[in-house]
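User: Hi! I have a protein structure encoded as tokens and I'd like to know what sequence might fold into it. I'm fairly new to this, so please keep things simple.
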């Protein structure tokens, strides 16, 4: 995502400058993700919040895009009756927690982008060879899918590292929910197949050492890259 049309910008993080313009669901998701956004502000991550004003049926309710060197956390919830479908199996008492995890996932994307390592691989990692017999357009799509899957793997780890740091008693619930969401996808050609990385962190204690949750996620993501492809 690189361009946004007719956005409503909420300029302050995490103060909701445009609160009067927000719908109930938008305000609720912003409130739930507030701790992550406040932390992102402390880290000086270049984030803008964009609320799409037009109807977006079937759109991903929360996504990260990039434009002009800045990260754009995009809410697409208006005219989108399935916006909260991902939470259907979550008890009401834990829905804010899962929204916080989703926000941490998206901020993980921004951290990678701000670090200048978007789609970069760990030092010393060897890419598998490309089959010369495969048509060029198929190779291009396959590589794009691979790169997206890798970034989603990192972002899932970032979300779980955040949970372990801030809600360790709820880690198991978040991990089980996220694993179920990923397992419900098709088994082939999936950009969000992050099982390779999720398998490393069934126990939240896998996130060890100092550093931000994003740095802890990076160490485990590097480890998972050894067997990702």
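Assistant: Happy to help. Inverse folding works backwards from shape to sequence: for each of the 229 positions I chose a residue that suits the local structure. Here it is:
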């Amino acid at each position: 995502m690189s361009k946004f049309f007719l956005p409503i910008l909420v300029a302050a993080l995490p103060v909701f400058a445009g609160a009067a313009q927000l719908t109930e669901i938008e305000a609720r998701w912003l409130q739930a993700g507030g701790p992550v956004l406040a932390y992102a502000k402390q880290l000086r991550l270049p984030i803008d919040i964009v609320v799409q004003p037009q109807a977006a049926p079937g759109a991903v309710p929360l996504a990260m895009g990039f434009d002009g060197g800045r990260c754009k956390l995009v809410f697409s919830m208006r005219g989108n009756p399935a916006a909260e479908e991902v939470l259907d199996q979550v008890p009401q008492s834990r829905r804010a927690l899962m929204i916080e995890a989703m926000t941490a996932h998206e901020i993980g994307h921004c951290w990678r982008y701000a670090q200048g390592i978007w789609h970069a691989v760990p030092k010393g990692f060897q890419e598998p060879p490309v089959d010369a017999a495969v048509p060029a357009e198929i190779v291009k799509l396959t590589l794009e899918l691979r790169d997206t899957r890798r970034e989603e793997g990192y972002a899932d780890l970032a979300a779980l590292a955040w949970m372990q740091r801030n809600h360790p008693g709820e880690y198991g619930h978040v991990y089980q929910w996220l694993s179920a969401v990923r397992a419900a996808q098709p088994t082939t050609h999936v950009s969000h197949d992050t099982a390779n990385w999720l398998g490393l962190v069934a126990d939240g204690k896998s996130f060890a050492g100092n550093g931000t949750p994003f740095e802890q996620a990076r160490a485990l993501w590097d480890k998972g890259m050894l067997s990702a492809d």
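A useful reference point when you look it over: Residues 1-20 have pLDDT under 50 and may be disordered. Feel free to ask if any position seems puzzling.
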